[in-house]
């Protein structure tokens, strides 16, 4: 998962420039910070030599050399399992297969769910910055013109209502602007976090493929007529070690997911509440400008 996220954060699109360059760089900085925070929370990757080199090396030449060494490391990706040493009791075959199969189903359903959420956020954004924004802007124009027109009428006591109508027009234009800006505080933020998890989930099939391939080797070996007790023990130990590593990674994923989605949803709902309170306050102010019927 770390490799996928590292690849996803490399390179800067040259098309971004001018007035958007500062904002684009800030977005890249935020994504890098999120990536480093996730790497830092991983119990193994956080303490790896490549992570320490990435964060601590100050010399540019040495940093590039370390990057080349990391890129040519034969123990990267599935080769990582060759370096695992498991001190705890190893899981049995049936338990690990069942656990990994359950996570495979879970990850596919989660990926589908997150895809739907991102699409829904896009739809929400388009409506907020498009149809709903324009609707309030049209109301603003109508109410403003209505107040200005009525102000030319013959009634001398209509000034408060006319003025309130014009103010209501300004209020609805402000609400239009609020709708236009809101997605960057809720939907965009949520989608960025979701896309990070989509990247992580994209690495899951490779991890599970290694586990499945090793499990198949165990099955093939046990069916063989010619068995060597020592070799059988080594095959089973390798499978159990890989199972333990995969299960530990799955556990870490679920723990991180629980923490992250709690934070993500709290931030999303807090932003939604602030948004609706802001709109309600503007409407309440507009309402307060109209005289009570018995005071007209």
Nutshell version of this structure?
The chain is mostly helical and 296 residues long. It has helices at 2-8, 21-41, 49-56, 60-71, 93-129, 131-150, 159-181, 187-202, 204-223, 229-288. The chain is built from ten helices and no strands.
Average pLDDT, all residues: 85
Distance between the termini: 68 Å
Overall 3D geometry? elongated
Number of strands: 0
Write down the secondary-structure element order: HHHHHHHHHH
The profile of the biggest β sheet is: none
Based on secondary structure, the structural category is mainly alpha
Low-confidence stretches: 1-17
- Spatial extent as radius of gyration: 29 Å
The total count of helices amounts to 10
How big a fraction of the residues is strand? under 5%
Helix percent band:
over 70%
Task: Tell me what the structure shows.
- Helix content is 76%, strand content 0%.
- By secondary structure, the chain is mainly α.
- α5 runs antiparallel to α8.
- The protein is elongated.
- 13% of the residues are buried.
- The N terminus is likely disordered.
Key descriptive features of the protein:
296 residues; mainly alpha; 10 helices; 76% helix; disordered N terminus
Write the layout of secondary structure elements.
Blueprint: H1 2-8, H2 21-41, H3 49-56, H4 60-71, H5 93-129, H6 131-150, H7 159-181, H8 187-202, H9 204-223, H10 229-288
